[in-house]
């Protein structure tokens, strides 16, 4: 008997049945033991007087009226009857389940599992129970062809066969004692078949700590090995020259900008390879900090390169660097450049006459040879894969790396998603920046909004109107955008110049439209969500988002950040008739705050990390039982313990930690 035994070898389970489990990534006995329920149903009978509104529970009572079925609409019906529990009379309704009528008889005692409505003193039935249970019933995620009963039966078979005893303890004994954690075997048993709620909660607490502890162990180990293996080059910059540049800026840096700049410069000068994430909300001034770091690199005799996802952003950064440093040689390198311009840029980069380079993926192509590359900056870093970043590092002698993102990442996720990096956060907006006023309107009020837009265009305002997102379908998005564009052209006529931008246009076409919008040759830009993060049109002061409830908070905030970049008061208008509570809640929060970090935290709670980042692309792990937001104190404690263990010089020699050392040797999956 081994934990790695195939499920097909279990009694009552053959190869065909085992295939159904494979769809849930359950292949071995150990996989099955560690496949936990996502909730439990309590099938003990409850008194209706003790129930909370909306609570699911079992109510035991005597049937006092006949069960009748009322039909309405196509294949829709409602079964109704009343039961009496002590002195309370309860209305019971089953929707589209007429077959329960045969099981309900006057004077019979029945146990109904359903959802309690305290205002109507009624129970919306889910099922009629054949018998009452004395314990909590686990509920698992399933796949087609696999029932709860067959999954529970397989788990019972595994436990009854003695496999549970093969699960070894994987936490050091002193941690079990320190945090009063139950042992691993007891925890796994209580996850599947808890004797009571307290036993389940203790099991859950232990397994959450275990997941976070091993994850942090991996992360801290990776960070430590990065620091050992990747000694960088000390960039000894000229403090006097940098101070002069700082004082020459037309604005004062915020305290958060100064703090972030100090952290970056300290890393650069240290001789330790920098691997830092600069995180700041839309408009918080990350670009100027990156520019000053590039200037510091120049004063130490090194080149620096800034890589961005699109040509229009590259052009924008190129212009701002030339404006900030007119005395330096700054070049642009993109695949869309003329051959002669590209050849001249490549020659200057190779012979060292170029100080700063801005570009797209063209910066890491084979033809590019850097003279003395000291600093690499990637903007909107989640768009660049690990492979691309590695190629960049290989272009120089392991240059320092600074990554920037305007996606506000809650501290909880920053630790998790970018745990192998150091994180600098700019959490203040520059002085004088007016907060964007956000309003939520219903579709019925759209005409009033259009009349107001008409007045604003007459005052030289520029406006973005974002077409709704339909089921992630590019074809439908385009159809929607085109219909909206035509409607707006008809409404405004000659009073406004309306243009359209969408994802199916070529890059050069999109660039042309954006450049025309920047030059104020367009008043209203109708677009799908392809508007790039960071594109700067200071005169654009109004953002209208159609069907805004189709977007998550983080995306709404990113879209809103396209305005509010000039001195004008800016507005975001959310047009939506949300049908769900979460949709209404998103609209409310958007109108209440412009703080991206507050919104990101709320988005995380509503939708989970996977939807914000796209779990696969971001490298954020999916935990089986732990939750990074709700269980943040456990995550933080696990981080502390893991770093304390790894800080001990001879930790692997301790008998307490032998299993941890073996785990880290086996685990090579983390990139």
TrEMBL record:
Family: Belongs to the helicase family. RecG subfamily.
Catalytic activity: Couples ATP hydrolysis with the unwinding of duplex DNA by translocating in the 3'-5' direction; ATP + H2O = ADP + phosphate + H(+)
Documented EC number(s): 5.6.2.4
Name used for this protein in its record: ATP-dependent DNA helicase RecG
Any single GO BP term: DNA repair
Keyword Glycoprotein attached: no
UniProtKB keywords: ATP-binding, DNA damage, DNA recombination, DNA repair, DNA-binding, Helicase, Hydrolase, Isomerase, Nucleotide-binding
UniProt-listed Gene3D superfamilies: Nucleic acid-binding proteins, P-loop containing nucleotide triphosphate hydrolases
Domain Helicase C-terminal: 445-610
SUPFAM superfamilies: Nucleic acid-binding proteins (SSF50249), P-loop containing nucleoside triphosphate hydrolases (SSF52540)
Keyword Isomerase in record: yes
Domain annotation Helicase ATP-binding: ranges: 267-426
Role of this protein: Plays a critical role in recombination and DNA repair. Helps process Holliday junction intermediates to mature products by catalyzing branch migration. Has replication fork regression activity, unwinds stalled or blocked replication forks to make a HJ that can be resolved. Has a DNA unwinding activity characteristic of a DNA helicase with 3'-5' polarity.
Domain of life: Bacteria
Gene Ontology molecular function: 3'-5' DNA helicase activity; ATP binding; ATP hydrolysis activity; DNA binding
């Amino acid at each position: 008997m081994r934990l790695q035994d195939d499920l097909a070898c279990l009694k009552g389970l053959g190869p065909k049945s085992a295939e159904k489990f494979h769809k849930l990534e359950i292949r071995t006995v150990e996989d099955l033991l560690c496949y936990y329920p996502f909730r439990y149903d309590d099938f003990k009978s409850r008194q209706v007087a003790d129930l909370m509104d909306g609570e699911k529970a079992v109510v035991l009572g005597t049937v006092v009226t006949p069960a009748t079925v009322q039909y309405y609409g196509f294949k829709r019906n409602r079964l109704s009857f009343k039961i009496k529990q002590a002195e309370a009379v309860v209305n019971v309704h089953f929707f589209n389940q007429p077959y329960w009528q045969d099981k309900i008889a006057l004077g019979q005692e029945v146990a109904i599992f359903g959802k309690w409505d305290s205002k109507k003193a009624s129970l919306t039935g889910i099922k009629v129970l054949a018998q009452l249970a004395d314990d909590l019933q686990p509920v698992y995620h399933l796949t087609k062809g696999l029932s709860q009963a067959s999954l529970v039966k397989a788990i019972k078979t595994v436990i009854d066969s003695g496999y549970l005893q093969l699960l070894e303890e994987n936490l050091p004994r002193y941690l079990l004692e320190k945090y009063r954690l139950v042992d691993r075997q007891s925890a796994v048993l209580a996850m599947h078949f808890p004797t009571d709620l307290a036993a389940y909660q203790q099991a859950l607490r232990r397994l959450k700590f275990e997941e976070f502890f091993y994850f942090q162990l991996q992360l801290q180990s990776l960070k430590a090995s990065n620091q050992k293996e990747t000694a960088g080059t000390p960039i000894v910059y000229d403090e006097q020259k940098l101070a002069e540049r700082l004082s020459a800026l037309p604005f004062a840096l915020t305290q958060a900008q100064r703090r972030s700049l100090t952290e970056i410069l300290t890393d650069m000068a240290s001789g330790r390879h920098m691997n830092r994430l600069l995180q700041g909300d839309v408009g918080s001034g990350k670009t100027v900090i990156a520019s000053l770091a590039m200037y510091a690199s120049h004063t130490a005799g090194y080149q620096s390169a800034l890589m961005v996802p699109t040509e229009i952003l590259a052009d924008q950064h190129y212009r701002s660097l030339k404006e900030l440093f007119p005395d330096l040689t700054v070049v642009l390198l993109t695949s869309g450049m003329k051959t002669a311009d590209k050849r001249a840029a490549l020659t200057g980069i190779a012979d060292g006459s170029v100080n700063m380079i801005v570009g797209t993926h063209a910066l890491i192509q084979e033809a590019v040879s850097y003279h003395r590359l000291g600093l690499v900056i990637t903007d909107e870093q989640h768009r660049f894969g690990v492979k691309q970043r590695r190629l960049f590092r290989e272009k120089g002698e392991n240059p320092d790396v600074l990554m920037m993102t305007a996606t506000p990442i809650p501290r909880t996720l920053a630790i998790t998603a970018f745990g192998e990096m150091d994180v600098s956060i700019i959490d203040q907006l520059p002085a004088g920046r007016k907060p964007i006023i956000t309003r939520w309107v219903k579709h019925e009020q759209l005409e009033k909004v259009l009349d107001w837009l008409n007045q604003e265009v007459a005052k030289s305002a520029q406006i973005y109107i974002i077409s709704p997102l339909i089921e992630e379908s590019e074809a439908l998005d385009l159809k929607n955008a085109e219909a909206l564009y035509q409607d707006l052209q008809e409404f405004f006529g000659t009073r406004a110049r309306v243009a359209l931008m969408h994802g199916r246009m070529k890059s050069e076409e999109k660039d042309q439209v954006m450049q025309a919008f920047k030059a104020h040759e367009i008043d209203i830009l109708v677009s799908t969500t392809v508007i790039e993060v960071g594109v700067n049109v200071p005169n654009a002061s109004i953002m209208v988002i159609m069907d805004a409830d189709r977007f998550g908070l983080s995306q709404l905030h990113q879209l809103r950040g396209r305005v509010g970049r000039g001195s004008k008061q800016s507005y975001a208008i959310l047009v939506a008739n949300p049908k769900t509570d979460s949709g209404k809640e998103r609209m409310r929060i958007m109108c209440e705050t412009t703080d991206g970090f507050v919104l990101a935290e709320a988005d995380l709670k509503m939708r989970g990390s996977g939807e914000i980042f796209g779990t696969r692309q971001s490298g954020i792990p999916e935990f089986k039982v732990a939750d990074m937001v709700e269980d943040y104190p456990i995550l933080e404690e696990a981080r502390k313990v893991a770093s304390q263990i790894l800080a001990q010089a001879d930790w692997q020699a301790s008998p307490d930690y032998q299993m941890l050392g073996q785990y880290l040797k086996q685990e090579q999956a983390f990139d």
